[in-house]
Amino acid sequence: MIFKDELLTWVRSTFGLNLYEAKIWLTLLERGEANAGDISKYSDVPRARVYDVLASLEKKGFVASKLTTPIKYVAISPDDVVENLKRKFEEEIKRKIYNLEKIKESEEFKTLSIMYKKSEITEEEPILLKGKEKILSEMKRLMKLAQKSFIFSSSEQELKELLLEDKEFRDIIKELGDRGVLILVVGPMKESIETGKHVKQVSIEEKLGRFAIVDGEYVLLMLKYPEEIKRSEEDVAIKVKSKVAAEPILRYVAERLREYGLSIGKL
After folding, report:
1. 221-227 CB contacts, 8 Å cutoff, 24+ apart
2. What is the pLDDT of residues 130-181, one digit of tens each?
3. Is the pTM of this model over 0.90?
């Protein structure tokens, strides 16, 4: 049985299978059920390798064996495979998160924290951040520090992604709102985004820039808009704790909003 190279490549990369595993799974998906001899014949996998490949696929949840003589094998449906993989990944993530939390309780970790606090590194020194995930993680960390205000300006695309699709971001926003922190998001939004009572949204015709300011002193200045970035690692930001850096940006935001007859008050 001949499968298109494109399909074989997609199955291997998507499900993490090797060539023989992909060929056998596709063969069983196509034929419904087969014994080892037929599987070897139609998949073009050497007979000597069929049994160990089938054992691997059974362990991974891609095939199952029937109680027949000779033993026949059937493919697990793609839908069930995806659901099984999701459960495995969720369990693995929970286990890793638990292990990471346990690390904080160790004496070695406490030693590392003391070493860092004794170092000369301070948040007043500008830090260069690279990569979308790293930048977003740092922004969320800064948000949790907010006592008075959090201002975020970006493109409509990113505002929608964070306010509608990022559960952690939404949870932090709600927690800040419950604490009475002023939350302002600014961007060229064509329509209001459903965020509840916690967020003040200001829609303007043009982009003001891509930045976040916390309590008028923590500044996270991102150098490109998401739509200008082809790869995550191209995303670059500068973070600094400095009222001197924050004040001109806040004045700029206030001035631009006044052009639209809007006021954000004292931040």
Report:
1. 221/249, 222/135, 222/154, 225/154, 225/155, 225/157, 225/158, 226/132, 226/154, 226/155, 226/157, 226/158, 226/161, 227/155, 227/157
2. 999 999 999 999 999 999 999 999 998 899 899 889 999 999 999 999 999 9
3. no
Length of the chain (residues):
267
Domain 126-258 = CATH 3.30.870.10? yes
Averaged confidence pLDDT in the chain:
88
Locate 242 and state its tokens. 């400095």
Per-residue pLDDT of 23-36, as tens digits, reads: 999 999 998 889 99
CATH class of the region 5-76: mainly alpha
Q: Could you count the other beta carbons within 10 Å of the beta carbon of residue 78?
A: 13
User: Strands 63-66, 72-75: parallel, antiparallel or unpaired by DSSP?
Assistant: antiparallel
Q: How far is CA 43 from CA 38, 56, 85, 157, 167, in A?
A: 8, 16, 24, 45, 44
Domain ranges of the chain: 5-76, 81-109, 126-258
Residues 26 and 12: beta-carbon distance below 8 Å: no
Dihedrals phi, psi of 235, to nearest 5 degrees: -75, 125
Place of tokens 């070695």: 108
